[in-house]
């Protein structure tokens, strides 16, 4: 597959790194020779030093033979224009990164399609949805729903109160347990567990289950006494903050603390009346105490500084906040955030890359989620007629090492999978895999 990425910024560079190991024909295009030089020395890809909106530049990149043209520069207008030009020059499919929510409305999809912009991605909106999922349940690190919630993936950290510490998985009830442990994150290592593996203190454990059994998982994880989130304090009045308040359930009350007075004025116009906007420094302990941090169950740090967000979450934890969420755009800081026990980490690059990666898969993949801490991905495949995965029970199908089936959805109902399960045509199968292995799994489902 020939893929042209226009924009060697944070998202484009991260996407190029992910795809360069997939034996794809990757061309990275940017008008900054310096940016291209840094990445071409480390990755197996071709670079083109031209503006993404240059017709001659796109011709030089070979856009006429491109299967996918991805425009992810920081400039929305440039991305849209680049996609229009790429389509006219022969690119089969285009994707543009945007920052205007209005463009995503279903009524505009056909309009943009006729212009040559086939798909739109709004990383801030995707990040906001992840934040809301994270704070709705204070004891969960990561949460993902499949087929409208028929099957759930959740990750939670094991504390001293967990009932399942140091118990080999094969002793937990065998095929009768109402969950499947698909992965364990231990320090810097991600483990796809076997029956003789056991869960240790401070492991982050990823479960697949159905909604009915979430309270049971909360109990065995020792999290029953953690307070449910009713009040959220957000530090930084970014676009993500605005979207997050709009997606919050009605029972959660939000406050935004923003240091820029003019931005505060703008925020009062953008957010609902129930959201309180406070002009001040979210690092000011006295201000936080005055605004009720002691009665706040969740603290979300969304400033432009990863360091500030991490430190602010640490301070909030020391003041008794149960759940913290930090936007960490510097990838090098993510492992540090985990070692410091920051709750949920949000990274727009990972989120955007997951959604774009989904678009380049040949199989019918409904969902792809990058698990920030675990260097792993979860994908929801729809099984096609006569697919190889239907030919034998799961234990005999020969999935590659580093991949495991977390569950399936059949006729709208979530089901856990054992080695004897026989997967059928039209099942939605949830697969957990290390690294970016999803491409290798396509042959099982096509």
From TrEMBL:
Gene Ontology cellular component annotations, sorted alphabetically: plasma membrane
Residue ranges of every copy of the RCK N-terminal domain listed in the record: 1-121, 229-346
Domain RCK C-terminal residues, every copy: 141-223, 366-446
An MF annotation (GO) of this entry: potassium ion transmembrane transporter activity
PROSITE patterns with a match to the protein in the record: RCK_C, RCK_N
UniProt keywords, alphabetically: Ion transport, NAD, Potassium, Potassium transport, Transport
SUPFAM superfamilies per record: NAD(P)-binding Rossmann-fold domains (SSF51735), TrkA C-terminal domain-like (SSF116726)
Superkingdom as given in the UniProt entry: Bacteria
Protein name: Trk system potassium uptake protein TrkA
